[in-house]
Amino acid sequence: MIDNLLSFLTYEKIYYITNIGVIPFWLLLIFIPNHIITKFFVKSVIIPLLLSTAYLFIVYQIYITENIFEIFNLYLGLNELYALFANEAFLLIFWLHFLSINLFAGNWIASDSKIFLVPKFLVILSLILTYFTGPIGLLVYWLIRVFYAKKINFYD
Fold first, then answer.
1. How far apart are the C-alpha atoms of 5 and 63, rounded to whole Å?
2. What is the four-CA torsion angle of 130, 135, 140, 146, rounded to 10 degrees?
3. How many angstroms separate the CA atoms of 147 and 22, rounded?
4. What is the pTM (predicted TM-score) of this model?
5. pLDDT tens, per residue, the chain with 156 residues
6. In 32-87, where does DSSP find H-type helix?
């Protein structure tokens, strides 16, 4: 049974499952950010738990099949980073990292926008930008937030 599960969980399938799997949570954040379903699934530990489980599974696969310490080469320069991304396991780890951080940022935007009464259209725009571009969406939200908060706050 475990062998069947391990043969099913290829890097390609994990990539597709996680990519498609986060979309419903983004849709919940966009359309019903204050609903109990959104609070239960998106604003709880469920998503980080699922994504970190996939992350740990891949780290374990790297550990048993390759040299896990290759990851430290990414600090040596762009060529080493490029070489590390040529390995699909390491690339998938970074992609899971990207999905997790973007969803966390989107969750923060949805929660923070309630405090400053940011219009829904501007929140949706920020969430879509955050989904696709991460930091740019967060910056756009922060600029919108400055306007609605009527102050610049660098540490919130």
1. 18
2. 120
3. 30
4. 0.84
5. 666 666 778 899 999 999 999 999 999 999 999 899 999 988 888 888 999 999 999 988 888 887 667 667 767 778 887 888 888 988 999 999 999 999 999 999 999 999 999 999 999 999 999 999 999 999 999 999 988 877 666 666
6. 36-41, 46-65, 78-85
